[in-house]
User: Which sequence fits this backbone?
């Protein structure tokens, strides 16, 4: 096992601690990929040789240091590749590392539901299950031509490879600072979809204000929903065009939320993250002649000037779109 997938058990309002926690991993390897809001991938191939310890042993050191220095526990999955490490994390518990050896990848994958495979959305999973391909073992045994007919040529090939343990992914070092996040915790576990949507409206409004304040636009929006049992679901969407427009961010957030198909879910918090940030002046936009959209953008500009003059609380994010 050379790849670790770490999820830090950050309490609400502690997401700002993630860069410091990533620093614990960077003490062992420079190849660390942040997975906001609370996780990371780390390639420990060089560290295993340098320290003379396995990745699982190094994971124990990371856990102890996270607890001692930051009071944060973590769950860790380990595997020969990023895909296996991510999936092993699903079976991990605080205080332990779920490790999948290189010679046990196919056996580990065989019993996993098809929905456990990263990149398989609800629509693809539904189609596969309709044909009895509800586990990765059955997907691996299915002919490639069948999977390509069901999921498409490229997606079918990738699905066939991943189900058979072929992991072409790699850990790409990045910086958590290239993103902005807005979290909305609930006072109690919230069942009401209407309150979920209002929280997303507020979070998207905050992200829009912050992006415009620093002259940035984002290309990707990520939604993380945290549940009462401490589990979470994360989905990302690449936007049609880079934007800092609160209405566009709100629409994308609603789309991500609706795609989850939550039914009576006890939600503890929602987190929106704007990723792949770039300078607003270098972004290109599709021309629009929608008078409503133009009006909303002019109102945003006025609200931003009011905040700049009278302070950030002069106009609360999300109120204009409500």
Assistant:
């Amino acid at each position: 096992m050379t790849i670790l997938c770490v999820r830090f058990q950050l309490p609400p309002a502690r997401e700002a601690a993630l860069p410091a926690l990533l620093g614990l991993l960077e003490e062992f390897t420079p190849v660390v990929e942040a997975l906001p809001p609370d996780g990371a991938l780390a390639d420990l191939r060089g560290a295993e040789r340098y320290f003379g310890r396995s990745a699982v042993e190094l994971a124990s050191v990371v856990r102890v240091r996270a607890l001692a220095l930051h009071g944060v526990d973590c769950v860790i999955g380990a595997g020969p590749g990023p895909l296996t490490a991510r999936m092993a994390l699903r079976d991990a518990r605080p205080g332990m590392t779920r490790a999948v050896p290189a010679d046990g990848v196919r056996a580990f994958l065989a019993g996993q539901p098809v929905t456990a495979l990263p990149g398989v959305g609800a629509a693809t999973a539904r189609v596969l299950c309709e044909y009895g391909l509800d586990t990765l073992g059955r997907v691996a045994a299915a002919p490639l031509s069948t999977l390509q007919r069901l999921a498409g040529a490229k997606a079918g090939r990738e699905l066939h490879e991943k189900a058979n343990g072929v992991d072409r992914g790699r850990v790409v070092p990045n910086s958590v600072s290239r993103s902005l996040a807005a979290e909305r915790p609930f006072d109690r576990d919230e069942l009401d979809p209407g309150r979920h949507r209002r929280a997303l409206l507020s979070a998207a409004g905050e992200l829009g204000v912050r992006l415009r304040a620093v002259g940035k636009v984002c290309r990707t929006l990520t939604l993380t929903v945290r549940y009462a049992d401490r589990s979470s679901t994360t989905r990302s969407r690449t936007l049609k065009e880079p934007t800092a427009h609160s209405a566009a961010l709100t629409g994308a957030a609603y789309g991500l939320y609706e795609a989850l198909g939550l039914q009576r879910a006890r939600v503890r918090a929602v987190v929106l993250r704007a990723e792949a940030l770039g300078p607003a002046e270098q972004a290109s936009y599709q021309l629009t002649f929608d008078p409503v959209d133009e009006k909303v953008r002019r109102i945003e500009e006025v609200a931003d000037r009011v905040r700049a003059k009278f302070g950030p609380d002069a106009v609360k994010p999300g109120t204009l779109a409500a």
